[in-house]
Automatic annotation (TrEMBL):
The keyword Secreted applies. This is Uncharacterized protein. It comes from Varanus komodoensis. It comes from the Eukaryota. It is found in: Secreted. GO terms for cellular component: extracellular matrix; extracellular region. InterPro entries: ADAMTS_ADAMTS-like, TSP1_rpt, TSP1_rpt_sf. The lineage of its organism: Eukaryota, Metazoa, Chordata, Craniata, Vertebrata. Residues 1-29 form the signal peptide. Keywords: Secreted, Signal.
């Protein structure tokens, strides 16, 4: 929780978006915007992997009423889409056993 507002931390980004929309600065508040979820855990526990997040386009329909809309709307407004995937690097993976199929017995091997 934020000590200033008492709101959960995951909402702090939303407040940054909403504060500029309070009167008298409402003119840009009905524009389209991208919003993202938090990054996922790394896809691998060692070595290089990926983290993912959800990216959605939102539009404020009226004060206090937002709607998720098609990505085309944000793209046509020439708003840079945030990354949905990024590389994550963990400590290198240690040695690992690798198994193959059993081979045929060579009868001449014991001579």
């Amino acid at each position: 929780r934020s000590p200033q507002t008492g709101t959960p931390d995951h909402w702090s980004g939303m407040w940054a978006l909403l504060l500029p929309c309070l009167p008298p600065r409402l003119t840009h508040c009905f524009s389209d915007r991208w919003e993202t979820s938090s990054w996922s855990e790394c896809s691998r526990t060692c070595g290089e992997g990926y983290q993912f997040r959800i990216v959605r386009c939102w539009k404020m329909i009226s004060p206090g009423f937002d709607s998720s809309v098609y990505s085309d709307l944000c793209e046509s407004a020439d708003i840079t889409r945030p990354e949905e995937r990024k590389v994550c690097k963990n400590p290198a993976c240690g040695p690992q056993w690798e198994m193959s199929e059993w081979s045929e017995v060579n009868p001449q091997a014991n001579q």
